[in-house]
Amino acid sequence: xxxxxxxxxxxxxxxxxxxxxxxxxxxxxxxxxxxxxxxxxxxxxxxxxxxxxxxxxxxxxxxxxxxxxxxxxxxxxxxxxxxxxxxxxxxxxxxxxxxxxxxxxxxxxxxxxxxxxxxxxxxxxxxxxxxxxxxxxxxxxxxxxxxxxxxxxxxxxxxxxxxxxxxxxxxxxxxxxxxxxxxxxxxxxxxxxxxxxxxxxxxxxxx
Amino acid sequence: xxxxxxxxxxxxxxxxxxxxxxxxxxxxxxxxxxxxxxxxxxxxxxxxxxxxxxxxxxxxxxxxxxxxxxxxxxxxxxxxxxxxxxxxxxxxxxxxxxxxxxxxxxxxxxxxxxxxxxxxxxxxxxxxxxxxxxxxxxxxxxxxxxxxxxxxxxxxxxxxxxxxxxxxxxxxxxxxxxxxxxxxxxxxxxxxxxxxxxxxxxxxxxxxxxxxxxxxxxxxxxxxxxxxxxxxxxxxxxxxxxxx
Amino acid sequence: xxxxxxxxxxxxxxxxxxxxxxxxxxxxxxxxxxxxxxxxxxxxxxxxxxxxxxxxxxxxxxxxxxxxxxxxxxxxxxxxxxxxxxxxxxxxxxxxxxxxxxxxxxxxxxxxxxxxxxxxxxxxxxxxxxxxxxxxxxxxxxxxxxxxxxxxxxxxxxxxxxxxxxxxxxxxxxxxxxxxxxxxxxxxxxxxxxxxxxxxxxxxxxxxxxxxxxxxxxxxxxxxxxxxxxxxxxxxxxxxxxxxxxxxxxxxxxxxxxxxxxxxxxxxxxxxxxxxxxxxxx
Lengths: 207, 244, 282
Hints:
The structure holds 3 protein chains of 3 kinds. By secondary structure, chain A is mainly α. Helices cover 76% and strands 0% of the residues of chain A. In chain A, helix 2 crosses helix 3 (69-85), helix 5 (134-148) packs across helix 6 (158-170) and helix 6 packs parallel to helix 7. The mean pLDDT of chain A is 90. Chain B has a domain at 124-205. In chain B, 80% of the residues lie in helices and 0% in strands. Chain B contains 7 helices and no strands. The longest helix of chain C has 33 residues, at 245-277. The mean pLDDT of chain C is 91. Chain C folds into 2 domains: 39-243, Rossmann fold; 245-282, no CATH class. The two termini of chain C are 13 Å apart. Chain C contains 12 helices and 6 strands. Chains A and B meet through helix 1, helix 2, helix 3, helix 4 and helix 5 of A and helix 1, helix 2, helix 3, helix 4 and helix 5 of B.
């Protein structure tokens, strides 16, 4: 009951959805639409788990006075502050504070956190990007050509470099990425089949 | 621009600088920004989910008489049993429903999208009708794809002819990874440029009014003071470190 | 210890500082970079340019603020271009932090159209923002059946059937193309679930990190065009003849690339010298 029924649900739903692709009958279409619709509703509840988990971790950190616990207060203040400002009586999604918190707190910090990577990639280029072997040299040359393709300082070499970069992207890069895509596709289909047939049961967790 | 709008813009600029301070070292300003964004993002998502998910997809339909929406809602609530040690198995029912549908949908779609379409395009005859170079490129693509797939085939040892083909494959893959790296450098730099553009816009804004300029100078003064404090701390620490 | 070995042991913060100084200094200069337009960006431009009055396109703003630098300029250029051609836009976001940006983007564009193009763009008649829904793959599939399944109402909680632009739209059959601007796996879902399953045309605007991965789809015809990172946005701005933030950023991009290439060259010279000496290979 604890394992068999979920396995049966996966089998039935999986086979039905796979076959539905090939049999667009009105009944199967009806069920397909409802399945998609319901899945969104189920998903909404699942997402609440993540929020609850975040609250619990932060609360535990404060309660146990773990290292840097003071910052967990800031995180929780941000969470509850944002929830308060987004309440219906504050204007919901159109609330002034909700919008401004998004535009002037979330956007600058999130965008800057990723901007930091520019510096780490520069440092990595200097310290780690070495032509240690022929393979590494091929990778290095590929990267250099792609980086130089729109560089006006190259003068007469600019146009041939740009053409070379176009060729790299559209021929060898395409071949490499296509092989990866096909590999991923085969992996996805195989895993999906294993899940439907009950061979792969990782999603059920432990007893 | 009003004072309040200006203060919001200034807050954005200060938080940008706080985050950039990580480049020097991990520090309380960065930590504040980091934790603040985690909390605010979670709060933002809660409200978004309520108003664009829960309300239109569940509350409104049930209120309008579509009572059967209670069923997915119950399945959704069952997910929460994941936290219970004794009853966590109950959450398997909605997960099974979700996984079953998602995997079932994925099989034909991914077969068509990633496997068939890509294989069909690779299997096209090389085009020598116009420019001969196009035909040569077509052949290179076929060889590149086949050899790269050989490289991914680990059930057979990479030796002899098979090993040779796999070697061509790994060279092709390296060019592919090189192109991605070239693009990645560009991407990361773009993110930094955008932040600098935003800071420049804020500085430009401060020049539009005298009272705004004062705020700019206060921010600059605070940054200079912090840098000075750090230098003094560094100088005080240095002799001690040399002795040790 | 020679110069290269000493440079090899340099504190990385000096490298950070050098890069920052070069970027800021270049941004303060005033020169415009010529941008060479690629075939993959031109095809998106030509598609948008071929739109007739009343045609509807779907624009997906499927990225978080961390990809804003690269994808926002694309969104501005493409949407402004489409509205200039009197096309209509259905806007959605399947990225959890994308809703605020998408709304702001839409409001900005409505303003720009009024001020710069003297066009009165009406919400609901010319453009609509359906908002956010979780589980992108399911949402993309359900829109293929009917937009009302995932989005019974728009972002502002207005019932879809009461929005003029949506009255004639049931699913992707009434949409000319999906212009997907995104980062992450959402892009793959659009190709698989919208193009492979429902046959709708898809054009992509992706972050630089991902750009090289989508060339196979371009050649197989699963996507009609590809804009990669800020360069892709600058190319589109050039075609649209309205240089924006991406075009301005290209000169900084070039200088930063020169610095990074010099770092790579210096690092490798040091590496070879150390290797020849038989010393520690950094």
